[in-house]
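User: Second chain of the day. Same drill as before.
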Amino acid sequence: MREALPAKLIAVVFIPFASGFFLSILLRYVNAVIARDLAGDFALSPADLGLLTSAYFLAFAAFQIPLGVLLDRFGPRRVLATLLLIASAGGLLFGLAESVAMLALARALLGLGVSGCLMGSIKAFTLWFPLSRLATLNGWILAIGALGAMAATAPVEALAGAAGWRAVFIVLAAGCAAVAMLIYFVVPERPLPGSGETWSRQFAEIGAILSNLYFWRVALPLVVVHGAYQALQGLWLAPWLADVGGLSRSDVARTLLAGSFAYGVGSVVFGTLADRMAGRLTAYKLGMALALGAFFAIAAGVRVGAPATVMLYGFGACAAALPYAILSQHFPRALTGRVITASNIFMFFASFAFQWGIGVLLRFWPADAGRYPAEGYAVAFGVIGVLQLAALLWLLPMREKSG
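Assistant: Same format as last time:
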């Protein structure tokens, strides 16, 4: 039987953390719409643009291991409130930046500052809510994140067009500071399982997690499939839609908006379906297969129905939230912060590598008026597609664990 989700806890726990995750996703994908503005203002090559945008992922990934220890030791309320103040500083610096170095530093601060928004939320859910509802809650929060991705498309395009891309980041900096205060003053404290452990033991337990074969078989598709989704949604889908699909800037923004909407719908569908049917692993496999099929269609340069393909891609990719629920039930509750951040670190390193690597590979093809040929995208995306296929083939034979 599924346990109820109290309305009071939704108000004082779910909503504050979901607000932070909304901003983190908006900041993750905001550069996709303003990419050409940044490239024009700072004379950036595709590789430069990919490296600059992926600095978010690099800082995000680098902090995941200490983040897991901090979440398990101090709790999500204090950790996330502090980190979001760092994100606020990063947003302000990005909006005021006068050089590529300042942009890169600001982007890294943004990545560090929002690095705990999803992991801290999931940690909070394991403390306050029944684990039997974890996939549903994770689906809900990913749906909120999808709203952030939607806000990073047409709404950002409208604000940037009216006030400039710098104003976008000033507004986002203020939003991060406001949510930091919301989390700190509204979210209640809760006793932490394993809080009396020493620092050395908490770090040592990460090794046990990383040496667990079950962990890797579940986490690896998250790493490569969702890592690729973030690399595309955060930057390269927009140029692909323009260069290969021939869409205008406004049509690109609307297509990305539709893809983000599909991601949000899929988040609720997969999360609720997984908890209702107790088939989280099955739902996970299905979502990853859908995402990979759509990814290969994009790599092949599909033009007819490109927006529908992008929507299918987002709908399937959202199932990547399910490993957090699957792994949280496999390991002791005292380890949940480290378990989910251990999987996240590799996923964000993959996003960094994919986002930068696509830009590097595209340079091997000559640009025509700033546009790159379909062949370049096919090769760059195809390399990543093979990695995703290998991870999915390793996952598919797994069966649901009983008990």
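The first helix runs from residue 7 to 42.

User: Great, on to the next one.
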